[in-house]
Amino acid sequence: MNRNARVNRRCRIATSLWIALSWCLLSTAAFAQTPLSDGKPWTPKRTADGQPDLQGFWTAEVGGTYDLTDPRGGEIRVEEVAKAARGAVRTPNRSRIVEPADGQIPYQPWAAEKHRELRANADNPRKPEHIDTQNRCLPDGALRDLLHGGFRIVQTPDYVLFLGEENYGFRAVPLDGRPHLGPDLKLWMGDSRGRWEQNTLVIDVTNSNGKPRLDMVGNFYGAAVHFVERLTPVGPDTFDYQVVVEDPAVYTKPWTLAARFKRAHPDSYEFLEDACHEGEQSAEQMLIPALRPPQ
After folding, report:
1. pLDDT tens profile 88-136
2. Are the C-beta atoms of 203 and 193 separated by less than 8 Å?
3. Is 0.70 surpassed by the pTM of this model?
4. Range of the domain at 121
């Protein structure tokens, strides 16, 4: 066997092993999202000041924000590409959106047209505005930041803190009943105010600047968006998340997203540094063709 033949054989073996490993890891875990709460009450442990204890490191059971209506992004999407190359049938998705029942965001006509353009150019952007804000290392906004990657919750008597591992998504949620900021102040992460309703942490988010995207395929909201988030512990290592999204300028009616989160790391875990594209200022340099799956 000559040298080129040996190299080609190694490449085929490595590719086969990679696909097999992806299949084993992803098909058994990533595609199956545990059903949300069955309604049975769970009594969580309490912090020293009596709050339900949500502290620790968390991640969504089905992580990533490639598409809210088909959340299989990141490594799961890589596996889909490998399956497509083998001619396999695509696994049915499950939308994160639970209301409306069709799992779709109820856009106003103008907003639906804008989203169609963003989606069509998500993988091969032709204009700077086609590029996902997350890829430009801009803040994810309150909702997307939790679904994007791992985060830590820290509680004090007066605050619940969300510390994100990626894109520096930090939020301090006061619990003291203070009013929201004035309407003229708009923020990437919005302005959060929290309260406890029995074991559920309810977070009211206003004052967004309307610039973050909801996912990589261009789902979006405007500066008038209003989030009401609910985090409810349903077991020692899980909590259910539900958020109602309202923005009459963009949507025809409010819609609801749901996800389950699982404990990700022991308390001794330390965040890895996420520098992203530090100092990147030229979106035009990102306008390059994306890799396409084999035909």
Report:
1. 555 556 789 999 999 999 999 999 999 999 999 988 888 888 989 888 8
2. yes
3. yes
4. 56-71+100-275
